[in-house]
């Protein structure tokens, strides 16, 4: 069975050249390793390295030398972006290019391949994404020595060391008193199976030419700068990939173009349930999130980069809202299956979603440039519109209409924090701290900006699930005097449950903060 995989429709040899010069760019783009084995050249796709890794348990102990060393290349030595030029059969074989996502790094290098090859758009795009991911993963390399009797390992094999995270491909082997091995880190890139519009991988066989995208319309909180209505966003993926146009109408006719999805989104689903979180905005080193990703890959990031906004994703919680999370650690535990750790949960005021947790198969969307605003106006915020998704290739298809109302979550006041209550001579004095969605991270200001035209809050006095009294105030404090308490309960209480919501303009009442106090 061939160890090489890839989808190459045609290749042009315009001049006399060597086989090495002809094959070299193809080997780079399709990530194919060439090793000499018993006097013959063996070609193996790097994705085939998803086979079980050989555990190296015994190393050669060389005097005055470490058992193994690990090195990591500098960021400036690697490209932040890969561009592949080819001939597109869907465009009458005109020249076209596919560009990977830009890696967030200090490097400005762009790695370009100009192939005289016929590649479908989705093939070129997947190859570009795989190439930029592969070179960044392979920055880590190992050097170690084995006994000369350990002859089972050959270049191209996959190894792992018990003390070192990750798997590595043997890239070089030197024979001598010991077998010196050099290996670079690898994480298998296996293209996902075709998917249908429910997000389920389709059965065996090639991807259909029909248009059946996986589409998510998301009503997101304000997790970065921008107008409130711009956080109604869309993410889409189809196989084979084609540009997706989104149109909307308030009725069932007269659809107007609103947005275009230029890139496939990194969409996935949970493979195990995620428990409710308890702490928002601080790294959770204990919990992990496991998911299947239908397209693309993930990578770890430094804690400071994550705190600055990298590795954000949206997860649909059990209550139907989207929780905004971030992760610092990403490990591919099987082809297209990932385990994420060092989580930041409940970001952008999504503690309500965090408290609900998420079920198996809950959708996950990486929040990158592939997730685009729907183009709502302020007047359309919160209105239910019908949406159509249309393909743009020769086999044009259409999905919809899909009813969706967005733009409200980003305008919803956040739940107050630091609720306090203390009984005094005049009654129970309550206080809390207001939060903001817009420019609320200014550490130099004495007070954060007020999101709404006027400050206001609604306080509910609770008895179990029943509301005994409601009061509206214009400052973050309220006095529940003894006369009101006696009228509501008939006697002074030793504990009290309250719910506080900030008033808004676009959304009348914000997210609730609820607490039980011992008095």
Index terms:
single chain, 39% strand, six-stranded mixed sheet, mainly beta
Summarize the model shown.
Helix content is 9%, strand content 39%. It has helices at residues 19-29, 121-137, 303-307, 351-356, 482-489, and strands at residues 10-11, 32-37, 40-45, 54-55, 68-72, 81-88, 94-99, 110-118, 140-146, 158-160, 167-174, 179-186, 214-219, 232-237, 244-249, 256-261, 267-270, 283-284, 289-293, 312-316, 322-334, 337-347, 363-366, 372-373, 385-391, 398-404, 417-423, 427-433, 457-463, 466-473, 477-481, 495-502, 513-518. The longest helix has 17 residues, at 121-137.
What integer value in Å does the Rg equal? 28 Å
Q: What's the helical proportion of residues?
A: under 10%
DSSP E strands, number: 33
Strand order within the widest sheet? Answer: 4-10-11-12-9-5
Relative strand content:
35-45%
Oligomer status: single chain
Low-confidence stretches: 189-209
For the biggest sheet, the summary is:
6 strands, mixed
Whole-Å distance between the termini? 75 Å
Number of domains: 4
Explain what this protein looks like in three dimensions.
- The chain is mainly beta and 519 residues long.
- It has 5 helices and 33 strands.
- 9% of the residues lie in helices and 39% in strands.
- A 6-stranded mixed sheet has the order 4-10-11-12-9-5, covered by helices on one side. Strands 17-19-22-21-20-23 form a 6-stranded antiparallel β-barrel. Strands 1-8-6-7 form a 4-stranded mixed sheet.
- It has helices at 19-29, 121-137, 303-307, 351-356, 482-489, and strands at residues 10-11, 32-37, 40-45, 54-55, 68-72, 81-88, 94-99, 110-118, 140-146, 158-160, 167-174, 179-186, 214-219, 232-237, 244-249, 256-261, 267-270, 283-284, 289-293, 312-316, 322-334, 337-347, 363-366, 372-373, 385-391, 398-404, 417-423, 427-433, 457-463, 466-473, 477-481, 495-502, 513-518.
- The protein has 4 domains: 10-186, no CATH class; 214-265 and 371-410; 267-366, Elongation Factor Tu (Ef-tu), domain 3, CATH 2.40.30; 417-518, Immunoglobulins (Immunoglobulin-like), CATH 2.60.40.10.
